[in-house]
Amino acid sequence: MSHTPPKTVADLESFVDLLKAACHDPRINVTLEKLLSMPDEKRQGLVHTWVTDMMIAGAPQNFIQAIACLMDDAIAEKAYEAIYHCKRGDH
What we know:
This protein is mainly alpha-helical and about 90 residues long. The chain contains five helices and no strands.
């Protein structure tokens, strides 16, 4: 039950911004690393809950879309690789 983002991830500037923020802010990096290292079903459930909570709270739509991209297993794997490289200083 994989969620497909409405656009390609490369088209979502907010998703790219999220990854950049993870490279520059250790707190965001740790949070995303914990989320992305979860088993797929657990990560998907947590992202679904997070997205629902953000929608109810009226969070910015572009941020909700960026987080929703993490439902997709392949995108989550690439995002994990990206923040791992940032942590090691490869960015």
